[in-house]
User: Fold these one by one.
Assistant:
Number 1:
Amino acid sequence: MKQNQRVPCLNIEIAEHFCSDCDIRSNVNSEIRDTYARSNFYYLSILCCLKRKTISSYLRYSFHILLIICLITSAFGCGPGRSFGFSHRRNLNYRPKPLVQKEHVPNIPEQTLGASGVSEGAIKRDSPNFKKLIWVESDYIVFKDEEGTGADRFMSRRCKDKLDILAISVINQWPTTRLRVIESWDEDGEYLHGKNSLHYEGRAVDITTDDRDTSKYGMLARLAVEAGFDWVYYENRDYIHCSVKSDSFHTPHDSGCFTKDSIVLTSNGSTKAMSDLIIGDRVLSVNDHGEPIFSEIILFMDRNLEQTEQFIQLTTEKGAVLTVTPAHLVMIWNPEKMLASYVFADQITRKDQVFVHDFTKALRPERVIKLETVTRKGVVAPLTRAGTIVVNSVAASCYAIVNSQKLAHWSLAPMRLWSSILSYMHPSNQSKETVKEEKRKKRLAVEEYQSGVHWYAKALYTIKDYVLPITWRH
């Protein structure tokens, strides 16, 4: 017999027996079909059939599926900022796509917290903040300066930094072309740009190329996005409008999700501050059907009571206040589509509706009437088994950074499984004294052994930039 010759499954004990998996007769004289001989030997049993699914093969399949889930998904408590661990590797086949007229990036209003943020007030030449504006001098930038006062050369430090990056990108894209600024800081008293325009704070620029070739403006807008401007608008055929966040804006890094003094409702009817929560507490959450339930805390994605961080604070029409980090997912209601979804906190606008747990013990939509940024000390990010949590009566996710609640929840499946295994290992019929002692140990364990982002969240975050498209991330 030659190696790799096709032969039937062979069971030397039972002649004329069919393999139940490949339907091949076990007699050597039967018709040759789908199995192979290895070296010069027949298969000695139908258990050797290649189509036979043994216990070991199931284990291998399960392991491979779990590995794939862990590698291609990620979710994080409000973990590290945009760069951590390894740098993001740019796709060598990437080709920037020009913007079209009336398109703006991101696709939200300019003065929302997810874009350039709200106006902080106009800056005049005699204002104390005028000293904070930077005079720009560059061989790669042409300034129109139609006022003749040099006003177009003044801008915030963040705006200058992004403009310098864009100027180099323009030279690289079109070697004989330079960036042209037609409007930057404006000191006119008539508010021609609109009273709350960011031009009056030096946080906005209107740009073209110095050859005024309008066919380049779509690509110029894309280059501005890649240079790091917080809001880019291909306003019309005459120019591109770009703006940035305030210099006082603090980019979140290693940030927790909620303030330490945020309040949650526990299963025994009492309330607790975030800083007092321990693993095993059952707190008010939301199930897949949008119904309030109590869910167990299985770990803390992030916990640092001494860290000072910047938060988004939203207030509803009936007074509910939620304070979370910008990249945190919050549950909102779309009345037109009659659909609930999760969005990043800094993309919520005043017209949006969030879910509030009211006195009827139900979750009802309430309109957001106020949005602001605040700085607080202490960050806590508990993870419940349900993946959701109701904080200060407002429904929110336990996840951040990734813009999919389902994807984030799946990526934490190994930790939920591990928590279930641990719960089965401990008997439930313990005395009150034993339960009290267990809670004390859990509190000490959280306080002593965790200060910062949980190791599992860090591991997931490390691979995030390699496996998730940029459109899926904050």
Note: The first strand starts at residue 6 and ends at 7.
Number 2:
Amino acid sequence: MVVYQGELVLRDSPAASGKAVDKLQFQDTVVVNGKSDDGKWEKIRVESKGIEGWIAAGNLKRAQ
């Protein structure tokens, strides 16, 4: 679940310079599929939209 209090940009690569793919909203549900080698980015899938991309690490909370 997204915990960032605002729009969170989903990118096509694990970098701030990566192309924006979509924007996530607070409490959107996502599936984490991995992390970048440096641990600063998480690869996610937005099941409701059928898209994948990267977000900055630390913006997610595991749903119970």
Note: The chain is about 0% helix and 40% strand.
Number 3:
Amino acid sequence: MQVGRDEAFRDIYREHYNAVLRYAWRRVGPDAAHDVAAEVFLIAWRRWETVPRLDPLPWLYGVGRGVVQNHHRTENRGQMLEARLMVEPDPPTRDLADRTAERNSVVSAWQSLGETDREVLALVGWEGLDVPTAAMVMQCSVPAFTARLYRAKRRLRTALDRQDKAAEDAPEPPGAPARVGLEERCV
């Protein structure tokens, strides 16, 4: 019976390791992603009797969520997210100051959300999970997840709007050149 278990585990590992690794990579970064993925499959091996054979990926994501949460207890999540966002390249056509301001605005809005809101948005937006699968990962009903997703999107939009409003209302820094219209510059 052990041989059958070994082969079944290998099949699940081969089929889903990359998805679990990507899940971990987006949450803990490249330095810890392989460790998180390894921990997920170690837990799967230890709890083999509870692993669903037909569709194990949502179960693996659920375990991954717990492993990631344990990882974040020892790391500052906000600093990690900001560091990953700062590495992401932008199209070269945009002004560096505008890109930096926009990135800072998004980071600030994201960090203002609660952990559950961030996880709900990440499961759907980054992982590409459908609502029923994401609900399984979050261990809640589909209607409850749908409500969480709606509220998380609304809170993110509100936070981004607040960031935009704050940027518009910010005074010019001391010594900055006055904004002059084209007609006044040409005179």
Note: The longest helix spans residues 142-169.
Number 4:
Amino acid sequence: MAKFGVSMVIVSMLCSIWCESVLSAVAEVEGESGWERLAGAPQEVQKAGRVVEKWFEAYLTDDSQRAKEMYHPTRREQAGRNLQQLNKLLEVVNRWRFRPMVIMVSGAESKVISSPMDISDASVLIVHLRKEKGEWWILYWSVDALRQVPGFYPQFRRKYPKAVIWFDEKIDDWLKPLKKTEIDIDIAELFSLPSGEKSIGTLHHKLREVRGEQATFESYFPDSTFGGKILDSWYKADDKKSYSDEEIFTIIRNGFRRSGEGGKRQNKENLIRWVAQHYIRGKEQKNRRALRLMYYASFDADVELVASVVYHGLSVAGDQQDEKVLKRLVDICMSDISTGRILWGTQGKHDKMLSYLNPYFVDSDREIQGRAAILEKVLKGETDYAEWQREQFKKERREQFGDRMGTIREVLLKGSGIQRREVFAQIKRYGLSVLFDKSFVEVLKLCLKDPDPVVKEMAISLGGELLCKAGLQNREMMQLMSELSKDSDSKVRKQAAIFVGSCWICSAKQQEEQAIEIMLRLSKDNNLEVRNSAVYYGLSVAADKSDEVIKRLVDMIVEPNQEDSGQIIRGLRTGADKEKVRAHLQPFIGLRDLKGERARKAYFEIFKEELEAEAVIF
């Protein structure tokens, strides 16, 4: 009997999944189509389902033309490629057949979610449909992890409150929850802050008003919607650099406030990065117009945009950080924005910056006075800012949550997968991992064995520092990470790569051979982020690179899909036998294809000093 209006209790149960249960359930129903179960469903559910059934049947019988005709008229041009992609997918799961697990229908939109497929982590095929003139048409299909399915239901409900949701009666077999009793506790209450959180940028906005920064910002950047459109058009063009510098900075200045249909931050941040890349970073003589633009952009009300201006522009201005810029950087430090970056970028000038704190010492606001006193000690070299900041944060969190950490530990130890996931989400939100002590080690190890990949991923990312200390003294941790590096979920493998590299390679006095072996394997992972993490945190920073590691780095650097080769080149320039590097690059040097081009470029970057020294200049 089809089930309708399934309660949120059942939906929440879907979050924690045993992959073995999923696969055994799939095996039980092989040979059944499952479509016959739609007989008692509402009419629109049946209609949407039948379209997908016929589409899939047409595909299986190799009737691609018929399958193509079932796509929405606006999507038929993409249908051919869409079906080719489906063909590649089903080659991996050739015994699998589409069986509807969930069908969600609103007035004009529908999603038909299949039973699980055994690929990567357990995954489902989702067919997206649109209703037009009384007929359902396929828009496209996508693949998502089975663990994400519970999120689709509430999202669809919020978007379409009157939506009809149909569930196959086999759903409980496919999505068995963890056999673990939940602790009777209100997690929302556990993490509540009666006094409210301190919002990000509070001090910034307070000081910004006192200093009249909005007027300064507006004095430089006109409020022109037309200017914003011109700027956006220029930025999208391929010939941006064909304009003169004067034209470029005039366009940016006139449109900056309204860039991106009203001044979206992402558009502004992209512009800041572009200007820094072409006129400031790595330039012996920084462009004065660019620095002036950065200076006034730093008066923006958006905290994250100001941080971007500091990172990409003002902090790397070098000798061109004049008194005006230094004063502005002190003001930004007082606003508690990018202080660490500013201190790094102004080394050797801290004495000059001290006088710019004087107005803050006489301010009537005690918070401002206290901030100035700390910065004075930091600029004098009496206090390490990063350590002070960490201790302040830790103190604040201990005052708010210190008496609750025992309960938090208990939930992670005895709670269900759903509860663990919720608790980790709150730990991340409030930065409570700074309060983890030795009593959390065994709890975190237990979470690393949780069937829910999200729990495993968060246990590594949030408990990494503590687990690393335990790992350096316990070989069990290495074995655990070795197993996690083979996890079916790519996000877990990525975190395992970061952990192994950070703990046993980057900062280790003596690098572990097993850690290198793990990184070599992960560098061949089918997921790009996993491969990049294995290189960034492992192979490229290995102190004494073996011939196998050198060969792998060279093989990666010539791969056509290797987007960022900078870290690999840095890795081959340090801690690697140059003759071995040369020997492994040599077979690619003479190739007249992309691999050869990449190999020659890498060779020049790695042996740049030697090549320049050997050059004869007449």
Note: Residues 195 and 404 are 16 Å apart (CA to CA).
